[in-house]
Design goal:
By secondary structure, the protein is mainly alpha-helical. It is built from eight helices and two strands. Strands 1-2 form a two-stranded antiparallel ribbon. Strand 1 and strand 2 form a beta hairpin. The model has no long low-confidence stretch (mean pLDDT about 95).
């Protein structure tokens, strides 16, 4: 079992590394690059589904900090696999409740899943695009409470966050 977990940790970190290398193609003007990105994230999403079925949420306690963060990244980018995103969200919520995962990452996944469902986000973590040099977030459920809600999960105020995108 220990070997399996070690191999799983390596597999997850390798997936995140591949994600980082190719993420620049997510919105590429080159259709082939964009398709390669979609195929990669779909393959990773499928694999995360198998991992969650076998192990539950891959927590830092199980696979180490780096691999746990990698699992979160894979879930975050499984945009065309809502079933995988929803399952990851559910398992990650349980892990956060048990103190085995961080509320900050959960907030990002929560927003990402809601945006993919066509609903307003809660924490304002997902940026739709840039207009006149300023980042534009996807619509929020309660825009007037975004900073208050962000603070509860350890995310910096919205203005500080979007300044990094400019």
């Amino acid at each position: 079992m220990t070997h399996d977990i070690a191999a799983l940790a390596v597999e997850l970190t390798d997936m995140a590394a591949a994600d980082h290398r190719t993420a620049v193609h997510a919105n590429s003007d080159d259709a082939a690059e964009q398709l390669a990105w979609r195929r990669l994230t779909a393959r990773h999403g499928d694999r995360l589904g198998e991992i969650m079925a076998e192990y539950g949420w891959p927590t830092a306690e199980l696979v180490g900090e780096e691999a746990a963060r990698a699992a979160w990244l894979v879930a975050q980018h499984a945009d065309r696999q809502l079933d995988i995103q929803r399952r990851a969200l559910q398992l990650m919520q349980q892990a956060v409740s048990a103190g085995a995962a961080g509320p900050r990452e959960l907030a990002f996944l929560h927003d990402r899943t809601r945006v993919n469902e066509g609903r307003g986000q809660i924490y304002g973590t997902q940026i739709a695009g840039v207009k006149d040099g300023a980042p534009v977030p996807w619509p929020c459920e309660e825009p007037e409470r975004v900073d208050e809600l962000r603070a509860t999960v350890g995310i910096e105020p919205f203005d500080e966050y979007v300044a990094r995108f400019s």
